[in-house]
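I hope you will forgive my troubling you with a question about protein structure. The matter concerns a single protein, recorded as an amino acid sequence and a row of backbone structure tokens. Please examine both parts with care and let me know of anything in them that strikes you as inconsistent. Thank you for your consideration; the sequence and its tokens are set out here:
***
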Amino acid sequence: MRVAVVGATGFQGGAVARLLTERDHRVRTLSRRPQGDRPPLPGVSCATGDLGDAEAVRQLFTGATHAAVVMPLVYEAKRVRAYARNIADAAVEAGVRRLVYNANTRVPRTATDVAAFETRRIAEEELRESGVPLVVLRPPVYLDNLFSPWNGPALVNEGILAYPLPADVPAAWLSHRDLAHAVYAALTVPGLAGRTYDIGGARSLTGDELAEEFGKGLGRAVRYRALAPHVFEQGLAQAIGPAGAAGVAGIYHHMAAGRDPLLLAGDDGLSAGELSVTPAQVDEWVARQPWQIWASDPEERGAQTLT
């Protein structure tokens, strides 16, 4: 395949790009960042450009046989619609055989006042209305969000797993790598065009159940702490800016309000079965991560490095 990957310089799109190149497919992407500021993407051709530039998007898709798309952390309806329209037009013109759209979140059945949901719904509608052969993936929440400077130190040094979801909300946590496998399947398995999948991990876990799985993987006691969404938003704003943080945090404000408590839950393996993917068990994923880089004890950090 020759795959146009929109979002390959981000975490989710980057995981997809890496899997594609590992399997010897050609990958091209587009980034607003200057070349020196981009993360390393071995085997990926990257041009400088913006999704708002129709010509840049058209050039990205020229010669592409397939496409994988995840939108940037932009939550303005007008901008997202323009991005999606440029992508759709370019994909149709290039004759793309299949486009996989990762909504990067679940999307409620009915309209909400949450920009994170509604802008992703807008993008999906634009892509679908274009007529391009489309598969939509709607993941729940990523395990990789927890392997971060915000969570790692508290997990390793205090045994506290803090996240802005109520403790009783079940979520089918998924890794970026398993997301990439789902995208790959959606690109290649015959007969999936037109389908939408609420993909997720092996099973749904409440906060306490998630902490138990982390405890197994880390070999220590872990307890879950529900973080207030506004506290999460304030911390995230320091990393991605207030607009992006408000967009992302809208999902967690929605969940904290109890409006759709099963939105992030699994689908009893239906999507995984149809995509022929087997997401990793949470404790197995946890055990594979180098958590000790956040250990407060220098000897523990050194032991992790040596092993």
